[in-house]
Each structure stands twice: as C-alpha cells, then as structure tokens.
C-alpha cells in the first residue's frame, strides 16, 4: 500500500469527530503530519495510520460518527487507537457496502 498524508476532507472529518473528546490534544496535534495507507475495504474509505512500531494491535475506539454520503447512504466512521494509545485506524463502513463517493465538509 502507498503511504500518503490525510486529505483535507479526511482531516476535517477526524477533527470534527474528536471535538469535545477528553485528552485528545496530542492526537489532534499529530493529524496534519500523519501518514496513512488506504485499506482494502471495497472503497469505503478506511485508513490505517502508518507507524514504525512492530506488532501493533488494535486498541480502543476514541470517536465514532454517523454521516451521509452524497448519495444519502449512511456511513459509520470509527477512529481507533492502538494498545499504546497512538492512532491506529479510521474504519469507514457504508451501510450498503458500496464505495464512498465523498466525505462531506465538516
């Protein structure tokens, strides 16, 4: 998979998801420079955050949000940390399992 920075729409989504959550200042500060890889999810928009750590494992969910794609199909976005509290994954699931058309502006 190819590494890249978050798009502006992805960044806006994550900032919106984290607003008002306790103890997320460190995570918010890392987002602009965070590298991600797109996951093989049928185009629904899931991302894995790149890390140099070995043997990373899925930890806890830090934020979750339902929104609608431009075709009005609901999308569930869930942001996970790894077991050490670092960004791990943005899991996106579109209710009809079709590819995500566009993240809305947040």
From TrEMBL:
Residues 3-104 form the DUF6984 domain. This is DUF6984 domain-containing protein. It comes from the Bacteria. InterPro entries: DUF6984.
């Amino acid at each position: 998979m190819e590494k890249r920075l978050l798009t502006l729409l992805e960044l806006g989504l994550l900032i919106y998801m984290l607003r008002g959550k306790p103890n997320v200042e460190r995570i918010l500060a890392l987002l602009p420079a965070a590298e991600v890889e797109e996951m093989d999810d049928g185009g629904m928009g899931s991302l894995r955050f790149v890390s140099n750590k070995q043997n990373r494992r899925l930890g806890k969910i830090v934020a979750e949000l339902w929104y609608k794609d431009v075709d009005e199909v609901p999308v569930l976005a869930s942001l996970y940390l790894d077991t050490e509290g670092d960004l791990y994954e943005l899991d996106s699931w579109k209710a009809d399992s079709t590819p995500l058309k566009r993240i809305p502006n947040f």
